[in-house]
Amino acid sequence: MQFKLRRAPVWLHAQQSLAQWYATGLGQSILIDLETRLSVCLRDVFGYQGLLIGNFQPNHTILDSAGLHRKLTIDAPGREADINADALQLPIASDTMKLVVLWHTLDFCDNPHQALREADRVLMEDGQLIIVGFNPVSAFGLRHLLTGWRKKSPWYGRFYSRWRLKDWLSVLDYRVLHSEASFIRPPINSERLLRRLKGVERLQPWFGGLGGIYIVQARKQTIPMTLSRRQWRRQRGGNMAAGTVTSAAEHARNVERRLKNKQR
């Protein structure tokens, strides 16, 4: 018997169903938890403008805690947002954003590497990238494995581990500032039960890695010019010949090759 690999849905097609799920009791409980944790991550972010990709709660301004003059949202055409576009082709100039938040973008994207490259392109040097996603090493991940075949949101997405994300970010020369998983409660759509189980969150210091939702915060670093040292040759006057400097084009090709090698 052959098993087909589950494919992540197209980002444009997944936004409406994911927004409907966030309107459920479980989704709202997660949103409250995420807003609290993101406010801590964003309070040290300052700059002219930032971008939220995935506007699941138009009445909630996730970027409010950041010290940004301009806060933009992007979502699929037909949904409420400042800009309607595809996360794989952002209609935004390069090096213009101080902050980019990927709200489940990678979980529901058939080309997560392209989404990361687009976020990297629009980020300024020293800008910050925040990724919110579902943790496969959790009760959420277990439900994803058991019920993903039903094609119901959000369980039919592709959940990537924080370790894999950190690997991808290292390829793009990002430095991880913060990483955490939260919401240890089981993925049940009952506000009453979720309220009763809220005390379980006190176990966060010990079992936080098993939380259903994760946040990874990273800073974009200036790519250093790498010196490729060859054999040093002694020249007249005791000078040494410098090595060749890797070109930007060659670096881009190397990044593309390394990202492809890290795919499943």
Walk me through the structure.
The protein has 264 residues and is an alpha/beta fold. The chain contains 8 helices and 9 strands. It is 32% helix and 22% strand. Strands 3-2-1-4-5-7-6 form a 7-stranded mixed sheet, with helices on both faces. The protein has a two-stranded antiparallel ribbon with strand order 8-9. Helix 3 (112-122) links the parallel strand 4 (97-103) and strand 5 (123-134). The protein is globular. The two termini are 21 Å apart. Residues 225-249 have low confidence and may be disordered.
Q: What descriptive keywords fit this protein?
A:
9 strands, 7-stranded mixed sheet, alpha/beta, two-stranded antiparallel sheet, 264 residues, 8 helices, 2 domains, 22% strand, Rossmann fold
What percent of residues adopt helix (DSSP H or I)?
Answer: 25-40%
Rg value: 21 Å
- Secondary structure tally, helices: 8
Main beta-sheet annotation: 7 strands, mixed
CATH superfamily of the largest domain: Vaccinia Virus protein VP39
- According to CATH, what is the topology of the largest domain? Rossmann fold
Total domain units? 2
Total beta strand runs: 9
What is the average of the pLDDT values? 83
- Principal-axis shape equals globular
Q: What distance separates the N and C termini?
A: 21 Å
If strands are numbered along the chain, what order do they take across the biggest sheet?
3-2-1-4-5-7-6
Low-confidence stretches: 225-249
